[in-house]
Amino acid sequence: MLRKQTVWLLTMLSLVVVLSVYYVTAPKDMNDNIAFTSHEDATKQKESNKDQADVAVEEMETTDGKVTSSTSSDDMFTALRMQIEDERSRLRDQLNAIVASANATAQQKSEAMDKIEKLQALAEKEATLETLIKSKGGYEDVLVRAEDDQVRVTIKAKEHSKKSANEVIHMVKSEIPEANDVAVEFQPAG
């Protein structure tokens, strides 16, 4: 058991180091080209038309009509992944400190362990969704960020449509049913 924990710890530490380097070198400017839907909208859409959903897809266009991005989408995906990992790593460290603390009550330790397990389950669901969306949609890259009842999906794709955004939203809802707000953002692939 100790060997598995050691390997896991070393793997996570090396991942944090690599992601930190990318985070420091990545540009800070991000685009906000997003398609939004809320739980209420999704319910109304399902009732009114099971095959199609009304999802707004917004794009930034230049004067020549081409969709552009001010940062490389690879850099953006890397920066976002690092930011998420950094935040979760800090939270995990805080929760582990509570569990290891001699001053914490049994209830506090139990709550901290529950939160750690929820963080791990959430990370696994995000990874599963990323793989599922990437394989089913044939996209170059996918980033899923879930927090509370909100899920934000960023997709690197050459083409996108309302139908593909709707399919992604349904995949998210099937994997994370407690998600009330789902946002799908398409980044142009280079």
CATH topology assignment: Helix Hairpins
The domain tally reads 1
CA radius of gyration:
19 Å
CA-based shape: globular
- Share in helix: 55-70%
CATH class: Mainly Alpha
CATH homologous superfamily, by name? Stage III sporulation protein AH-like
Distance between the termini: 45 Å
Number of helices: 5
Q: Give the biggest sheet.
A: 4 strands, mixed
CATH architecture: Orthogonal Bundle
SS-based class: alpha+beta
| Strand ordering within the main sheet | 1-4-3-2
Number of strands: 4
Element pattern in H and E: HEHHHEEHE
Rounded average pLDDT: 76
Please mark out the parts with pLDDT under 50 across 5 or more consecutive residues, or reply none: 41-71
Beta fraction of the residues?
A: 5-15%
Brief rundown of the structure:
The protein is of the alpha+beta class.
Overall description:
By secondary structure, the protein is α+β, with helices and mostly antiparallel strands. The protein has one domain (2-188): Helix Hairpins, CATH 1.10.287.4300. The chain has five helices and four strands. It has helices at residues 2-25, 39-48, 73-100, 106-137, 162-175; strands spanning 35-38, 141-147, 150-157, 181-188. The longest helix has 32 residues, at 106-137. The protein is globular and about 55 Å long. Residues 41-72 are annotated as: Disordered. It holds the Pfam family SpoIIIAH.
Which descriptors apply to this entry?
single chain, 190 residues, alpha+beta, Helix Hairpins, four-stranded mixed beta sheet, 14% strand, globular, SpoIIIAH, membrane, transmembrane helix, Stage III sporulation protein AH
